[in-house]
Amino acid sequence: MSLLNPPKLVASTGATYNCSVTETSARELSVQKWSGLGNPHESNLFKSAQWSPDGSCVLTNSEDNILRTFVLPVDLLDHSNEPKPLTPYSQTASAEPVSCATIYPSMSLTDPATCCFLKSTRDHPVHLHDLLLTNTRASYPLINHQTEKYLSPQSMLFTPEDANKFVVGATSQIAFFDLQRPGEGPYLDLKTIPTRRSVQTCETMKGVVSALAINNGVLAAGTLSRQVGLYDGCGSGSTIGVFTVDGEGGGITQLLWSKCGRYLYVVERKSDTIAVYDVRVAGEKMESLKGRMAQTNQRVGVDIAYSLEGEVVSGGIDGMVSVWEASGKGEKAFEWKAHDDVVSGAAIHPGGVVMATCSGTRKPGSLDEADHEGSEERRWDNSLMIWAL
């Protein structure tokens, strides 16, 4: 298996979601109908896709504020001339757009008790939902004690040392929760800067904490104001250092550790490059992975093939998926045309056998409405695809 060879499409949602939010809602169960927020004629794009830890499912987030669980068919890799159809096994609707979601790290499809995920939305607590049903199992409030309003985490992950602990990032704040304490707030609250008016130093950072990643006990936190903080003890220890990202991106959307744990990949919106930093010297930029097309405010997902050689993959606004070798010199090694629209997500299967991509971008209007810049009909590609590597 290699990410440097042409992959084969083995499963897809096809044209099912190549329509508006309300057109999707009209076809699906009444309990999962669109909340009514936003533009009813907006294209029902896929915003993101992530694999379950056991590799059996893909969890997606769409414009209609519904998280869908797709369970892969058991005969996924059996020889077939046509890709197998993908339909959601379950759907979890939200009244507000989903800021972030993450699946329980010990999840196994054979143990229903472990099949759950966390979800963050505006003006609500963090919720623990069932991955295979529509149940809400628990909630965890993050509250501004001065205004008594809910704070909305923009990033979230489980700690690798303890699957029952999770970390969230909000505005100038990183909070730590215990999954086994439903209804309770954080047991530890880290302010990344003491007060809003504090002067920034080499150990403080200000802004929305929009990305989190942990490796070897080091928590990396990135902000929309283009800073990265490194914290010991999975975030509960001392501050290792804070640095500002080089270049001209529009804010950090994702942080990923290299397979060896020595380098940190920094992904930004409105940036065609992925910056690589050596964490042994905070702020030392090693190289930039070049060649992806991502000059957009929309999040364009990146992933690393940890189960293979550590290759890096990214979507693009041109419908391409780009691949860089782990030991490369910054130039992409391979690419292929995956979608006819923005590839908003690219995720490697935990076993490295297949990968998932999803697509779509905001296009208000109906399917048969002509493009304002020409006579051709608009191309809609809101799809989830599975590729054999």
Automatic annotation (TrEMBL):
<dbReference type="InterPro" id="IPR051150">
    <property type="entry name" value="SWT21/TCAB1_mRNA_Telomere"/>
</dbReference>
<dbReference type="InterPro" id="IPR036322">
    <property type="entry name" value="WD40_repeat_dom_sf"/>
</dbReference>
<dbReference type="InterPro" id="IPR001680">
    <property type="entry name" value="WD40_rpt"/>
</dbReference>
<dbReference type="InterPro" id="IPR015943">
    <property type="entry name" value="WD40/YVTN_repeat-like_dom_sf"/>
</dbReference>
<protein>
    <recommendedName>
        <fullName>Anaphase-promoting complex subunit 4 WD40 domain-containing protein</fullName>
    </recommendedName>
</protein>
